[in-house]
Amino acid sequence: MKKITLKLATEKDIPIFIELEKSIGNLRTYSNMTDEKETRDEFKKNIVHLIQYGNEIVGSVEYEIKSLDHTYISGLLINPKFQGKGIGRDAMKQVLDKIKCFKRIDLVTHPDNVPALNLYKSLGFVFESRIENYFGDGEPRVRLVKTG
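Now predict its structure.
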């Protein structure tokens, strides 16, 4: 398998990020971000990495530092054409290595997103709670947490 690299994104990368979000389509299990203003706000409060596989940008992963001991992983996206190759796992391992100094790392995902749930659980995340209508889209999310 090709090695992936994480490229720190800047506001210049917003069009690429939006195209990645559009590649997912309109799924009830993923609340994609295709509005430019919303994306700019996301880039201001998060550390965003584009995931490069070979010569292609195939996904993104972002996190927000909430406090000195808490980081929230706010997104992981892999273009469907590249899913199932271990890219998401490798990207998450790299991010978790970058943020390993935080005592609490959490994230949310849709309870029906079984591949994501399996990935996060395999990386040491455990179920904490279920939140109804988390993003205002009428869909629930589950909060998973990794403490260390």
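Residues 124 and 146 are 6 Å apart (CA to CA).
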